[in-house]
Amino acid sequence: MNGEVPNIKKWVVFYPVYINSKKTVAEGRRISLTKACENPSCVEIAECCSHLKLANAIEIDKAYPRDFMQRGRVRVQLRKEDGTLYNPDISSRKQLMLHVAELVPRHPGRTKKQEAPSTSSTAAPSKSGKGGRKKR
Predict the structure, then answer these.
(1) What are phi and psi of 27, to 5 degrees?
(2) Which residues contact 26 (CB under 8 A, 6 or more apart)?
């Protein structure tokens, strides 16, 4: 890019809420529930965009207006300066959301997270302690 800083103001904004299956449409989800993934993070979205050969930038300090406790968003460049697409398969925001939502569950960090709790939960079903009512 000629050593200059790209102008990310013109890039597409992508909040994790857009593809979160735990959110409703009123809360900000933009794709169907069957295609959405569970609790995506900005880092996972950015790595999926890199996998799709799209330039991206994570903005950690930004928050989604409807859910300001959820921090972070990703800016993605769909088109080059001359107007041609970086990835011919992805020509709109909606297609970007669908492709990323398909890739996030297969993200390497996510598959490790899912394997770890399943092994620990089988080892600790025994409950220690008496239970019952507390004395006053």
Answers:
(1) -85, -5
(2) none
Residue 4 has pLDDT above 80, yes or no: no
Q: What pLDDT score does 81 carry?
A: 86
Average pLDDT over residues 21-45: 92
Report yes or no: 75 and 50 within 8 Å, Cβ to Cβ: no
Name every residue whose Cβ is closer than 8 Å to that of residue 129 and which is 6 or more positions away in sequence. none
One-letter-per-residue 3-state SS of 60-92: EEEEECCEEEEEEEEEEECECCCCCECCCCCCC
Q: Cα–Cα distances in Å, from 24 out to 32, 62, 64, 105, 109?
A: 10, 21, 14, 19, 25
Above pLDDT 90, what percent of the chain? 51
pLDDT number for residue 58: 93
CB 54 within 8 A of CB 90: yes
